[in-house]
Amino acid sequence: MERLSIAFTNYILKKEVISKEDYEIYLYGFQSFLELFLNLVCSLCIAAFLHMEVECLLFFILFIPLRSFNGGLHLKSYYSCLIFSCATMTVILLIVKYFSLKAPVSFLLYFVFMVLIKLTGAVDHPNRPVDANENQTFTHKTDRTLFISFLAALSFLLLNLENYIFLEALVYLLVLSTLILSKFTGGNTPRKD
User: Fold this and answer.
1) pLDDT of residue 126
2) pTM
3) Under a CB-based contact definition with an 8 Å cutoff, are residues 68 and 125 in contact?
4) Domain residue limits at 148
5) Residues 190, 121: contact at Cβ < 8 Å?
6) Residue 4 falls inside a structural domain
7) Distance between CA atoms of residues 137 and 107, nearest Å
8) Has residue 193 been placed in a domain?
């Protein structure tokens, strides 16, 4: 991805679309876009292959906000992160496809994982420390995300949508696991409230 990002950035620099001062910004932007795009394409291909497009969308709706606001495990390279992300999503989708729990049991598991996520707290990435104001903003956004997910889980429970509430429980288990792993690997530091 880095070489492709450099090629794109060099091309627009050569065409004088950007200045040398903006080079690093565009390089970072291209690299971030390409990495996100590849991850999304891989995930959508997996979902289409499994015929689980709705579940994949729900996975992203649940996972991305919590991961964005709480931090979590960071691997050493983009490709190891891509493989880990695709593998964990695939495993969760396969579990939901071939196994199920009764809606009340899944709701109870989801609720326990949600509370544990809140109690575990967020972690900073060493390359992006968070100040007190940002931490407060992220905490509010996390609380809002947890509340909305609780309403969704309650709706799934009332509508007896076992697979969706089971998926929600598994996604929250994944988020909790990555938060705990990140705290024990020493790569991240707990955020101070």
Assistant:
1) 61
2) 0.84
3) no
4) 53-72+100-187
5) yes
6) no
7) 28
8) no
- Name the least confident of 71-75, 102-106, 145-149, 156-160: 71-75
Residue 36, both tokens: 């996100």
Are the CB atoms for 192 and 124 separated by under 8 Å? no
- Burial class for 122, CB neighbours closer than 10 Å (0-12, 13-18, 19+): buried
Question: Do residues 56 and 46 touch, judged by C-beta distance below 8 A?
Answer: yes
Evaluated on CA atoms 186, 187, 191, 192, the torsion sign reads: positive
Residue 191 has pLDDT above 60, yes or no: no
Domain annotation covers residue 9: no
How far is the C-alpha of 4 from the C-alpha of 6, rounded, in Å?
Answer: 5
Contacts of residue 16, Cβ cutoff 8 Å, sequence gap at least 6:
none
150 inside domain: yes
